[in-house]
Amino acid sequence: MMVFFEKSVCFGGCRPDQLPFPIQVDNSGYVTLQAEMTLAIIKAIQDGYSNFFCGMPPGFDLICTGILLEIKDIEPKFANARLTAVLSNAERDLSELW
Questions:
Q1: What is the 3-state secondary structure (H, E, C) of 31-85?
Q2: pLDDT tens per residue across span 21-62
Q3: Contact, 23 vs 30, CB < 8 A?
Q4: Is this structure's pTM higher than 0.90?
């Protein structure tokens, strides 16, 4: 698999306890973040970005990852967007993070 990094996006941001609002579907801050990131991810794909990387910690990273996966499922023309999990330490048990 050839990855062109100049057309890549990396999701990285706050953990749940660092966000200024709880991650709850009825929270207006969370709803706004999801809406804005949905538009940003769609625009990135339309602009030719096809490789998306996520370090997989809970919080902003997984919110964006979930949005990307939903977009890929809903809109066939975005199906070519590729998501790669980037794990910094494969030997560490990451289950406590999720």
A1: HHHHHHHHHHHHHHHHCCCCEEEECCCCCHHHHHHHHHHHHHHHCHHHCCCEEEE
A2: 999 999 999 999 999 999 999 999 999 999 999 988 899 999
A3: yes
A4: no
